[in-house]
Amino acid sequence: MPDALHQLDALDLAARLRRRDISAREVVQSHLDRIEQVNPVVNALVTLDPEGALAAAARADERLVRGAVVPPLHGLPIAFKDTHLTRGMRTTHGSPLFADHVPDEDDLLVERLQRAGAIRLGKTNVPEFAAGSHTFNPLFGTTRNPYDTTRSAGGSSGGAAAALAAGLQPLADGSDMGGSLRNPASFCNVVGLRPTPGRVPRHPGRDLWDTLSVPGPMGRTVADTALLLSAMAGPDPRSPVSLETPGGTFRVPLDGDLRGLRIAWTPDLAGHAPAEADVLAVLEPQLRILEELGCRVDTACPDLTGADATFRTLRAHSFDLALGDLLDSDRQALKPSIVENIEQGRRLTVADLNTATATRSRLHLGTLDFFSRYDLLLAPVSQVTPFDAELEYPREVAGRPTRSYLDWMRSAYLISVLGVPALSVPAGFTPGGLPVGLQFIGPPRADLAVLRAGHAYESATRHGRRRPDLPAG
Questions:
Q1: 62, 296, 338, 469: most buried, per Cβ within 10 A?
Q2: How far apart are CA 168 and CA 32, in angstroms?
């Protein structure tokens, strides 16, 4: 075969596996070899079970030999985000408090992906308790960007995105509250989807009604991302917000054209999220490509008044709910920014929560009105290009100083408040070779339409085909 197996798209691998052109053991071994070669450079995987993965691959091959019908992810290796519970394999959340924590159950997402045939390789690195969009923690250190290892890979699904870009796995799971799927996808030149809340149900959890943080898929292509979504999505009675649409809805061809699509473009979310000039220099020429594909492109943005305060209020409340007990028992073991996030939650008043709830309702209705006039909204995924990996966060954005590690993430987290699907698609590179992503945003529950638009743009540009300059193999 001309290409090493770890270089192939997930859909291609899946088809070859079903035809028995290749074996699951060959696929897993190819990725294990790549991990041994490259992971020391990028630090994307932090737990690895090669023996377990090869044993699972052998069982997968035996099923095909017996003539069994195999599920859609049959034989595809995946390392799960280290905030997602994995039965019998440590889940650390990037915290010393959980360094030896081995759960006795799987997250629903993990359970579903393994039932769909995925083979567990290990775990991908995260910021401590997934707080922030730069992946570093005191247990495992910093994940490096495969395109420039002096730069951030983003976060909190930074280990997942770096592993995809570096060829360590063909698919990756993640989660997104304020951009944790989209930012690392943009930084690492891969695809990440924040689905409509409820599209991928969550269990277990302390707040099963939460719609601010959502699990979701990543891939090197939009089609691979849709394949993974098809295995994640679908209703579950334990999740009160889960949507009824079955996951198989997304296992369909995405081909089509964009002629007649009404697209709104906003370079700065109407002034709420100014972007650096090098980001816009990459993204603005992409609008001409979309016009050539038959789209009508206007400059417009929904009213986002109050979205920033609403996100920060709801996020602080969620941190207190999830981690407040640890603040009481192990305050000194938490990084200062997490302590501050929890304390912000504890300072909230009933009036604060009432205002956030009412504002979010108003934003939802305004979003529906906006999407009655436009099919899609396009925006930068991130306001900055991948920054110095030694920093906790950029110190300024577009000439404005940042006061916290959230300030540079507005172009992602303001969209989170709207409860809509948002897809990060590779959109090109700066002159210095740093990736930039374009955010495709659709109406609530229009995940498939967003995927189809992203696929058409990807097919026309092929920016995602540019691979990082890492050790060959």
A1: 338
A2: 7
Q: How far apart are CA 181 and CA 197, in angstroms?
A: 14
Q: 156, 239, 318, 416: which is the annotated catalytic residue?
A: 156
> In the β-sheet with 296-299, what is the strand arrangement from edge to edge?
171-176, 214-219, 191-194, 422-429, 435-441, 376-380, 262-265, 296-299
Nearest to 139 by CA among 49, 46, 26: 46
Cα torsion angle, 290, 296, 297, 300, sign: negative
DSSP alpha helices (H): ranges in 293-434?
307-330, 336-347, 350-370, 410-416
The 10s digit of each residue's pLDDT in 294-350 is 999 999 999 999 999 999 999 999 999 999 999 999 999 999 999 999 999 999 999
Find out whether 458 and 426 touch, Cβ atoms under 8 Å: yes
Helix H or strand E segment including 137: strand 136-137
pLDDT at residue 180 in the model: 98
Give the pair of three-digit tokens for residue 358. Answer: 């009412």
The catalytically annotated residue of 30, 133, 175, 180 is 180
Tally of CA atoms within 13 A in the half-sphere of 5 that contains its CB: 24
Which candidate, 363, 453, 372, places its Cα nearest to that of 415? Answer: 363
Note if 123 is an active site residue.
no
- The answer to whether residues 455 and 209 touch, using CB atoms and an 8 Å cutoff, is no
pTM of model > 0.85: yes
User: Of these residues, 23, 30, 81, 239, which one is catalytic?
Assistant: 81
Give 359-370 pLDDT, tens digit per residue: 999 999 999 999
- Domain range annotation of the chain: 5-465
Helices (H) and strands (E) in the chain, counts: 14, 17
Which pLDDT band, with edges at 50, 70 and 90, does 3 fall under? low
The first and second tokens of residue 152, run together, are 């951030």
The tens digit of pLDDT for each residue in 187-244 reads 999 999 999 999 999 999 999 999 999 999 999 999 999 999 999 999 999 999 999 9
**Architecture field, domain 5-465:** Alpha-Beta Complex (3.90)
Q: How far apart are CA 281 and CA 305, in angstroms?
A: 27
